[in-house]
Amino acid sequence: MILEMKVPSPGESITEVEIASWLVKDGDYVEKDQAIAEVDSDKATLELPAEESGIITLKAEEGDAVAVGEVVCLIDTSAAKPSAKKEDTSTKEEVKKETTEKPASPAAKEENKAAKQAPAKESYATGTASPAAKKVLAEKNISADAVKGTGRDGRITKEDAVNAKPSMGSPTGGTRGESRSKLSMLRRKVAERLVTVKNETAMLTTFNEVDMSPIFELREQYKEDFKDKHGVGLGFMSFFTLAVVRALELFPSVNSMIDGKEMISYDFCDISIAVSGPKGLMVPVIRNAENLSFRGVEAEVKRLAIRAREGEITVDEMTGGTFTITNGGVFGSMLSTPIINPPQSAILGMHNIVERPVVKDGNIVVAPIMYVALSYDHRIIDGKESVGFLVAVKEALENPIELLMENDVNKALEL
What we know:
Dihydrolipoamide Transferase; CATH 2.40.50.100; alpha+beta; extended; 4-stranded antiparallel β-sheet; 7-stranded mixed β-sheet; Chloramphenicol Acetyltransferase
């Protein structure tokens, strides 16, 4: 029986996928549920398992865009599993004999001899630089191939090297290779979405700075107990997530988005967290972050980050989200303008933490400072609301015990 394997639907609104790579070859015997291909959608990379055991016939090539429901391969379920066969040594010997180089005939030898004795148009010395010329050319980073020699038999003299000038755009000995590779469907979709955001939103960015000293002190004092109790580290992301949740409750327009001529506002906070995965940027979602504690946020961030980096993240785990947090600081970014994650209306950018001189109580002191940025859609978020939102985030991060922990650290950290 011939089974037609069709592309299953990876998720709502996805109409086609791209064959990223076949994990089997045409004519291979595959087992039921064996992964036979990796397919890219515009949201994630998924494995395609064999529906039955049998001999497979591929109907699409790597890089092909295949519509959901279209046949990608055939499986002959009536085919028996092949047994291992011994190599036919006699055939190998015959091939070896046939491919062994035959001795050249006397006529061929004469032709080769005549070709070697034919006078060359140029001397072997043509283009050869003298030792002194080589040194000069090396200092000037000029290739000998780019210099015409005026010496005997076309040799390059020291004078030739001294007078040589590299022409603009001419190779000077460095490598000049290039390579091409097709963008994955995920990367192409991300590119399209980012361009759409720039073209279809009134995006602005406001900036502020945060003194991270209070958070540093809390982490230094409680991180070991927190990890021993909950099995996860007390990182920065839980503080930022809960500070964002508080700010979203104070400024609900930031937790909204445009749908045609209407504005949709949400009474829940689904926070998208941008992480770097093997296929590019992934943005898994922490659902109902307003109901999570520090432990809950840290556990969810860890779970989603691991799944994204191991390529196990699902479309459902990346769908939705009402606000996004991205952390360019892990790569060393000091300041940037994050691009809104559509159809959301705002995104918070975290950056690296650097010790900087600041004024406290009239004195100049050194403190760990992070620059933060909020990009927002000015069509529904006014400047006053965007600045107020970012100030609210700053206030919570600089006074976490009062504003995020209700003055009870042990209770907030569940210690």
